[in-house]
Amino acid sequence: MKVLVLNSGSSSIKFRVYEAQGEIRELARGIVERIGEEISRVRYRGPRGEIEYETRIASHEEGLGHVLKALTDPEKGVISDPSEIRGVGHRVVHGGDAVSQPVVVDEEVEAAIERFAVMAPLHNPANLAGIRAAKKVFPDALHVAVFDTAFHQTLPEEAYLYAIPYEYYEKYRVRRYGFHGISHMYVAERAAEILGRPLEELRIITCHLGNGASLAAVKGGRSVETSMGLTPLEGLVMGTRSGDIDPSIFYFLMKWEGLSADEVYTLLNKRSGLLGLSGISNDVRVLTERMEAGDEAAARALRVYAHRVKKYIGAYMAVLGGADAIVFTAGVGENSALMRSMILEGLEGLGIVLDEEKNRDPAAHGYVVSSDSSQVKVLVIPTNEELVIARETLRLLKSKG
Ligand code: ADP
Question: Any residues with CB less than 8 A from the CB of 380 and at least 6 apart, and which?
Fold first, then answer.
């Protein structure tokens, strides 16, 4: 049985095809980029070769037509007819409190994605466009939506409520939702497997540090606290997002700089974080090089970044009553030994001791990078959100018979 996983962004569609015959395995993957621009690009890699070309692609529906063309390519494709794709799993960013599980996409689910688009204006409309296009291109498949917010629906009230008048929660559903849930769930499960202990017994702090970044406190497999909030702007310092600030800054920037609310909102999302602090780049690789060359602005930005993660780890150890494991994942978390080292420096008093040699090459050490004496195990685990979506799609396909 074959399933397709789609991650539809505003101008791109990332796709992977999986085959399930007992074990689930990836057959092919690719991306359609720059949809709606003058020149768009299609890239595909299958078991019998690659396809790459440029052309003009105006919409997600057209883009998916190109995905289908690559998948059915007589020479390099992996299917001969669209009906061979039995399920399509869609990644959706914001499901609000309407969905707490992967679901089959029906009208009600589409309405929920539309309703919460106001809180994820860059993501939800694109996700929905992808779903609607895929339903046309793969009409026989079961379409499943897996939400970034769903895993965090187990947060207790004291963790998800903001201390503003309660009526705004009732009126607008203003609360913490949290994101990256698919990734937090996956790496927590993998950590339990790697440690050889039941997930139900473990207290795990998962650090998803990519372009966007968030932490989750996972107790017995359930998310009980997370750093992103109503939107993905809250919490950690990110590539271009500020993360936590005193909300008064919003007010004073409007007054002092004569900015509109929209302009300050854009500034906090697009021109802040590592980019805003350093004035150089949002990319940890670039900043690391510059820091090593003696650039103080780059070093300062990375120190602020690491300090924020450290502070959250301490807070989440308190929330969990201690921790059995800390997991690092995503672009920065998986690849930057330096950031892991800066984040965990000085936490010996909390039972966290990094082994610097293992930290330099986690895969060579079974993904555990803490020293043997460390009470809290530290792991580096590559995330795989697409695999989770594929599994969930298969699970729903099976349960529908
Ligand atoms: P996204 O949130 O876009 O999925 P990723 O998880 O791919 O992001 O993370 C992208 C970020 O990861 C980049 O901006 C870069 O800062 C960081 N990154 C990737 N590779 C490395 C590396 N080798 N060393 C340090 N940082 C890295």
Answer: 327, 328, 329, 333, 334, 340, 359, 362, 367, 369
Please tell me the distance between residue 85's alpha carbon and the centre of ligand 1 in angstroms.
31
Q: Taking 80 as the threshold, does the pLDDT of residue 401 lie above it?
A: no
For the stretch 66-86, pLDDT in tens is 999 999 999 999 999 999 999
With contact defined as beta carbons under 8 Å apart, do 71 and 77 qualify?
Answer: yes
- CA 142 to ligand 1 center in whole angstroms: 33
Ligand 1 centroid distance, CA of 211 (Å): 6
pLDDT band at 21 (very low <50, low <70, confident <90, very high): confident
Ligand 1 pocket, 232 CB below 6 A? no
Q: Are 278 and 298 in contact (CB under 8 A)?
A: yes
Please report which confidence band the pLDDT of residue 137 belongs to, taking 50, 70 and 90 as the band edges. very high
- For the CA of 208, the closest atom of ligand 1 is 6
The catalytic residue among 97, 140, 148, 361 is 148
Running DSSP on this structure, what letter comes out for residue 137? H
Task: Indicate whether this model's pTM tops 0.70.
Answer: yes
Domains of the chain: 2-147 (3.30.420.40), 197-380 (3.30.420.40)
Give the whole-number percent of the chain exceeding pLDDT 90. Answer: 96
Q: Which ligand 1 atom is nearest residue 330's CA?
A: 6
Residue 246 appears among annotated catalytic residues: no
Cα separation, 55 vs 305, in Å, equals 40
In ligand 1, the atom with minimum distance to the C-alpha of 239 is 14
